Amino acid sequence: MNGFPDLQKTTKILADPSRLEILTTLMDGKFHTVNELAKKAKVKSHTTSYHLKQLCQLNWVSSYKQGRNVYYSLSSENIASLLEKLMNISPTKEVHSFNENSEYQKLKKGRSCYKHLAGNLGVSFFNFLVQNQYIKLENNSLMLTIKGIQYFESIGIEITCIKKQKGIFIKPCLDWTERTFHLGGNLGRAFFNLCEEKNFIILNTGNRSVCLTSSGEDFFKPFKP
């Protein structure tokens, strides 16, 4: 029998620093092994397996087995969206080391938010779309205009195909470092995929940050304020 949401169980899951590190690592939208996640969370592999079992039981994380390896990913964009919203309302921690500051600056410049381009790069692109009337933002909802359809198709994104995909076609996603919107939904994911396929961005293997290639610098130049 269905009942009330168990918020206590949810907050208990989020209260563990290692589980949070695992979840934020998976926000890159990719599959990771236990060993990869253990290294990132700085805990033993068996501890990571325990955390992943709990997250799988909540259907926050899903697994995929190929050969001897088991790979883990977030089960849906809703989980990534929840984490991003929590980051927006959470107090900030002081940065105490050069390495911490370096990592923060990289994430702030550009990162993957479950296959959306986030950070300054993502926000700059979003603002470019608004300023050129390719998208309309009203009451925190987005609409792609006819000009916008023409623009996205001109850079190699087929809007008709994107609209046929399951999930939300287009939405604003509040960015936790910039405190304004970047492009979300399936269209945001299609743009991120395009940037990867065209080698405009390279995803950092150590965290979710991305860096621009020389061709990416040229492509993103019109988006900079």
Question: What do you see in this structure?
Answer:
The protein has 225 residues and is of the alpha+beta class. It has eleven helices and ten strands. A hairpin with a 6-residue loop joins strand 7 (171-174) and strand 8. Helix 2 packs across helix 3. The protein is globular. The termini are far apart. The model has no long low-confidence stretch (mean pLDDT 91).
List the defining traits of the structure above.
single chain, alpha+beta, two-stranded antiparallel sheet, 11 helices, 10 strands, 17% strand
Strands, total number: 10
Instruction: Return the structural class.
Output: alpha+beta
Major sheet summary line:
2 strands, antiparallel
- How confident is the prediction overall: mean pLDDT? 91
Give the secondary structure arrangement, pairings included.
Blueprint: H1 7-14, H2 17-25, H3 34-41, H4 45-57, E1 61-66, E2 69-74, H5 77-89, H6 98-109, E3 111-112, E4 117-118, H7 119-131, E5 135-138, E6 141-144, H8 146-154, H9 159-163, E7 171-174, E8 181-184, H10 185-197, E9 201-203, E10 210-212, H11 214-220
Antiparallel strand pairs: 1-2, 3-4, 5-6, 7-8, 9-10
Helix pairs in contact: 2-3, 3-4
Give the gist of this structure:
By secondary structure, the chain is α+β, with helices and mostly antiparallel strands.
